Amino acid sequence: MTSDTIAAIATGMSNAGISIIRISGDDSLSLIDKLYRSKKGDKVLSKEDSHTIHYGYIVDGDEIIDEVMVAVMKAPRTYTRENVVEINCHGGIVVTRKVLELVIKNGARIAEPGEFTKRAFLNGRIDLSQAEAISDLIQAKNELALKNSLNMLRGGEKAIIKKLRDNILYDIAYIEAALDDPEHMSLDGFDQTVINNINSEEEIISKLIKESRNGKIIKEGIKTVIVGKPNAGKSSLLNWLVGEERAIVTDIAGTTRDTLEETINLNGITLNVIDTAGIRKTHDIIEKIGVDKALKIVTDADLIIFVIDSSTDLDENDEEIFTMIEDKKTIILLNKSDLTKKISLDEIKAKSNKPIIQISVKDNSGLDMIEQQIKDMFFNGEITLNEDIYITSERHKEELEKALQSLKLVKQSVIDGMPEDFYTIDLMNAYEALGRILGENVEEDLVNMIFKEFCMGK
Amino acid sequence: MSYIYDSYDVIVVGAGHAGCEAALACARLSIKTMLFTLSMDSIALMPCNPNIGGTSKGHLVREIDALGGEMGKNIDKTFIQSKMLNLSKGPAVHSLRAQADKQAYSSRMRKVLENTENLTLKQAEVVEILTEDNKVTGVRTFSNGIYPCKAVILCTGTYLNARCIYGETVNYTGPDGLMPANHLTESLKSLGLEMYRFKTGTPARIDRRSIDFSKMIEQKGDEVVVPFSFTTDPKDVQIDQVSCWLTYTNEETHKIIRENIDRSPLYSGAIEGTGPRYCPSLEDKVVKFADKDRHQVFIEPEGNYTNEMYISGMSSSLPEDVQIRMYRSVVGLENANIVKNAYAIEYDCINPIQLKPTLEFNNIEGLFSGGQFNGSSGYEEAAAQGLVAGINVAMKLLGREPLIIDRSEAYIGVLIDDLVTKITHEPYRMMTSRAEYRLLLRQDNADLRLTKKGYEVGLIDEERYNKLILKEEAIAKETDRLNRTMIGATKEVQELMSKLSSTPLNTATSLAELIRRPELNYELLKPIDKKRVELPQEVIEQVNINIKYEGYIKRQLSQVEQFKKLEEKKIPENIDYDQVPSLRIEARQKLNMFRPVSIGQASRISGVSPSDISVLMIYLSSHKIS
């Protein structure tokens, strides 16, 4: 069995109490020894008895990252039958994420979808009757991960990574063509070309990594969408939530999606609010961009705020939205409670079992109740960050780092005066790492590139 | 009326490079072997280029030799020029290539075959493979002789339904005007085999006396020749070598081609077969790389027995009248007399995914195949497959474990795995870039990698095996000594460092550490290595490489370790993929089609995802428990 060490956040990514990071594999114990420090600084966890739990800190060098409880469970009496360590983090999402990063940096890799369960099964821990269910789970999770992986890259980033791969592959093909046909092609001076190319590739990848850290590639926080038909009061609500009168005016043409996104902090909970106003501004545009796009935004969201104008009758727009939000965590707001009501609370209650709050954005009434409702839902663990998306972003970063590391090794090979055939080893690793982000594998890429670009053969 | 002739354990069809190795391997392993050939005079024929080896192909020849094959020995005895290619590059891509005397090569191989015990040769055309319950029972020849046997190895090369084409001229012959095999394809199709039609081509041969070599650049062989075979004494290959010559095509050549491109059967559609991208015709090169104003042309002797020169780089299927103008437009070939026209050849072969890694067909027990018939190209690729097919027939008939060489062990492993695991759309040629563990699969260590396997199979004798063990021990001992021997920063040491433009030592350093410096190596450190004992060159070479590239080698070794884990997980032959729950439909189809032998092989099939592999592993492990 492959026994490399894997890690993942075992609990949902919420701020609800404690997050647990689970680590499994041969090196779990030696890994935790590097990260854990007890209060007195004298404990070495790998030497402690199995199935014990320890109070202490996760440290990165001298820096304390979090105050934790660490459970040590030695093989074989564990879920996966491998050495398992569980870190109970207390410091919230950001800190949990930092701890996981540290675990990865110290030699674990992010677990594949369903991998803990798979190991548990393959190591004979789980009953045979469950085999089929596990197979289904792995396929389903993998499909989701694949979908997420691509969804999360914006068009621009996808193009950048594609271009990077093409450039790297070209250099590999150049070298390989020359190695294969030394009497036709010379590699004189190509080492300098490789260095130059790598320098610019490194710059681009570093930027991608930095952007992923800043959350530019993937927005962190709870993805919240405000939906409602035109003029229901969505923009006003957003402005109120943001806490300032921002000039988000929906009727200016060319308003981009980004300007419609706001990051709001509610007592430590990060909400990324997307106002769909721009999309559903007029009937014309609804027709053009279509319900599909709104539906997609709603599908991706962690939380929906559905604003209903209680001063007008429910129309087909509202009905459409009711269908969309059926399976989503939603708060329904009955706005314009200051005006004459055309829709009653009971009417809505009959249509949906979601929490309903009556508000008037204009009068500034009921807004504190929204805040309370969101907080309740979050701390009860009802709404969580989309864990799969989070993990995907972590995995992307891992691959970008790998690619960067491989390119550094190529440069080192050049500096060390290694022959050119050594360059392609790490160039290929970089190429493969970037390919995993796009969900592409290598197959015959290289051979095809060689024949396409270079005139080979006898 | 058919009648029963003699019966054999195995029948090999075709005496080309695959067939020769296959027949020899079987016979040497005491299997009663019959080798059929269409012509006794075309045994081990080289109908195209007059050389053995080259990049990655040289590796194959050395591996064949380490396993106990014949090709390396044969070329060592019949070469007329030899070169180690890529010497300025890393050791993994050094490749040996020798020009052969074609006739000598062929005759010497014939002599070996004719004098091998258990091996019978016969000139006849096999037209039918006889089977019972999907099991081979014998073959039938054109003259209706039935030869009962337990196994058949098909090595039909480019002869099946072959036709040779240039311009509007079509000859229904095999290569070099030889007789084709026109009947066997039907029999194979009726057995349910999926057939492909491939093509390849060869350039013209020109009379040496009509070539002006003074206008060309001479290409000499190496001063010190390295033999292919690990059994050949290097002293025996230091012969007087002949030269090859380099010239170039030019705009005029390209113009002639462009003006007549519509008369090329490749472009007019007269050729249906798929050709190798590696051996493009000159017209292909001119069309595809239109910006190149010239292409290299190597003039290579076909042997000492003839004045024919092989015009490498100018393969073509243009009509005769265009060919003559095209060749004569090249500097030095102005007065060329063409002895043999260039031509394209089309032939039937199989889709090799029908084979197991043992080179036995999935669906017909006892039917094996090797060489160009399997969709590969090249003499060396053919010989490698012939050898493996031959060994596996013997192993099967002797009731022993099959020989499956994996991708981490040899180029032969990469070659066969690619053939049986990847969809091929063109004749497959070996390339060093196809070997992911290239650094470990060097031509210099083929003996260390494979001699043991050859010994276990029974093709390597005790003496050669013992020699290998001694070599292994010497390498380990010397490597260890260099790692442990510390060199102080003495005056003598610093002087040597400065003389070799290497940084002076700050502190005591191991000899191994010094060897790792790019500007230093084992030989150069001799003056300061006081306890060094005299060692054979082949041992020094390994020690030097192992130490110098230790970091890279270790990394590849750890990758190999991961790779092996999946390779070792075998999939039972009778697995019913329709019973495996949760497999995606595409994966199910592909697995049914390829029938991989291991989880590792399954994971390399395009269309089988990592999660399918997980699902498959879960199924297998639950299957085993129940």
- Unreliable segments of chain A (pLDDT under 50, ≥5 consecutive)? 215-219, 245-259, 277-282
Per CATH, the class of the largest domain in chain A reads: Alpha Beta
Mean pLDDT of chain B: 95
Mean pLDDT of chain A: 78
Termini separation of chain B comes to 54 Å
- Tell me the overall shape of chain A: globular
Count of individual helical segments of chain A: 14
Q: Assign the structural class of chain A, choosing from mainly alpha, mainly beta, alpha/beta, alpha+beta, or little secondary structure.
A: alpha/beta
Q: What is the gist of this entry?
A:
The complex is a heterodimer of chains A (458) and B (626). With 458 residues, chain A is α/β, with parallel strands linked by helices.
Main features:
heterodimer; A: 458 residues; alpha/beta; Gyrase A, domain 2; Rossmann fold; 2 domains; 7-stranded mixed β-sheet; 6-stranded mixed β-sheet; 13 strands; 16% strand; B: 626 residues; alpha+beta; FAD/NAD(P)-binding domain; Elongation Factor Tu (Ef-tu), domain 3; Arc Repressor Mutant, subunit A; 4 domains; 6-stranded antiparallel β-sheet; 35% helix; 17% strand; globular
Description of the structure:
The complex is a heterodimer of chains A (458) and B (626). Chain A is an alpha/beta fold and 458 residues long. Chain A has two domains: 6-120, 2-Layer Sandwich (Gyrase A, domain 2), CATH 3.30.1360.120; 128-438, P-loop containing nucleotide triphosphate hydrolases (Rossmann fold, 3-Layer(aba) Sandwich). Chain A contains 14 helices and 13 strands. In chain A, strand 12, helix 10 and strand 13 form a beta-alpha-beta unit. In chain A, helix 5 (155-180) packs antiparallel against helix 6 and helix 5 crosses helix 14. Chain A is globular and about 90 Å long. The two termini of chain A are 45 Å apart. Chain B has four domains: 3-199 and 347-457, FAD/NAD(P)-binding domain (3-Layer(bba) Sandwich), CATH 3.50.50; 205-344, Elongation Factor Tu (Ef-tu), domain 3, CATH 2.40.30.260; 482-555, Orthogonal Bundle (Arc Repressor Mutant, subunit A), CATH 1.10.10.1800; 568-622, DNA polymerase, domain 1, CATH 1.10.150.570. In chain B, 35% of the residues lie in helices and 17% in strands. In chain B, the strands form six sheets. In chain B, strands 16-17-18-19-15-20 form a six-stranded antiparallel β-sheet, with no helix packed on it. In chain B, helix 3 crosses helix 4 (102-114), helix 6 (251-260) packs antiparallel against helix 9 and helix 13 (462-484) crosses helix 16 (537-548). The mean pLDDT of chain B is 95. The chains are: A alpha/beta (458), B alpha+beta (626). The interface between A and B is large, with 48 and 57 residues.
